[in-house]
Amino acid sequence: MSSTTPSAIGVEFDDPQLEASVRAGLATIEQSLARSVRSDDEFVSEAAGYLVDAGGKRFRPLVSTLAAHFGDPTRPEIVAAAVVVELTHLATLYHDDVMDEAPVRRGAESANARWDNTVAILTGDFLFSRASNLLADLGPWAVRLQAQTFERLVIGQIHETVGPQAGADPIEHYLGVLADKTGSLIATAAEFGAHFAGVDSPTIAALRSVAQLVGMAFQLSDDILDIASESVESGKTPGTDLREGVATLPVLYALRGSDADSERLRELVGHPLVDDDEHAEALGLLRKSAALQEARETLRGYAREADLALRVLPDVPARRAFQALTAQVVERTG
Question: Which CATH architecture has domain 16-215+308-325?
Fold first, then answer.
């Protein structure tokens, strides 16, 4: 692969040594992740490995691995910490699918659809327990950071579930939910990688800020792809959020309008769109709306903030890889 060809892990590398090192690190993390979900109980192993085997972008391990390249990326704690973060992420997916009653995850039946809600919830709990077991070997600092991150994940989920308070801006509320539910764990992925690589405190703080912003941008790009894409680039069928009645950023911007299309959208998205014709109509209205462009501009705003935060970091190949990753997050939405 040439250094200018986008890699399967979503980054354009301009340094072959960095690329080789990152790929090796991610391969080791993947192997450790597969081991971490195995159990002596065959059914538990099958359920716990279900989403691992389904694949995924492994965005959080990638962030951990890149952050570690500001220090010594060979330290074994980096792998364990990256697995902790990915296990946490996967556990939340099992729980999210139950809450959302989602039938599909990563192109296959969700765990709750394949088995039932109880199995999915308990499997998520099992993954949390495996993450905790790994954390115990990483020391009190890591346990505390994970606890603080988990608190933010739960608060974000609570805020999403109850919705904005009376008088609150729905868009600000939504972005706050994303910061807690998505940005916090990606920020922790960077902090874990950098900390265990022996990176200095100011650089760790900067990397955490970068990762939080890139994480927000990554989720917003998924929101946009769910509306704009004709394919399954985001890992789910286009319009899935609409069909499930989830008001993502493009929808919230559209609902803020006062034209006839906005009024019609309010009628359509006030409930899950199980009717195929209504779903297609809503998707069509959103695709031609100014709201989609407004959401893209919000995405670019987070990417610009991330780029500014990157400029204070040491000028090493890993910084350029983060810059490429940020650009790729924006470019994937077209």
Answer: Orthogonal Bundle (1.10)
Q: pTM here?
A: 0.89
Cβ(119)–Cβ(112) below 8 Å: yes
Give the contacts of 133 (CB within 8 A, at least 6 positions apart).
Answer: none
pLDDT tens for the chain, 334 residues long, are: 333 333 445 678 889 999 999 999 999 999 999 999 999 999 888 888 878 887 778 999 999 999 999 999 999 999 999 999 999 999 988 877 776 666 666 556 777 776 778 888 888 899 999 999 999 999 999 999 999 999 999 999 999 989 999 989 999 999 999 999 999 999 999 999 999 999 999 999 999 999 999 999 999 998 999 888 776 554 556 777 777 777 899 989 988 877 777 788 888 876 778 888 888 888 888 888 888 999 999 999 999 999 999 999 999 999 999 999 999 888 887 6
Identify whether the C-beta of residue 100 lies closer than 8 Å to the C-beta of residue 117: no
- CA count, 13 A, side-chain hemisphere, 226: 23
Q: Helix (H, G, I), strand (E, B), or coil: what is residue 72?
A: coil
Q: Judge contact between 62 and 322, C-beta under 8 A.
A: no
DSSP labels for 179-207?
IIIIIHHHHHHHHHHHHHTT--HHHHHHH
Spans of all domains in the chain = 16-215+308-325
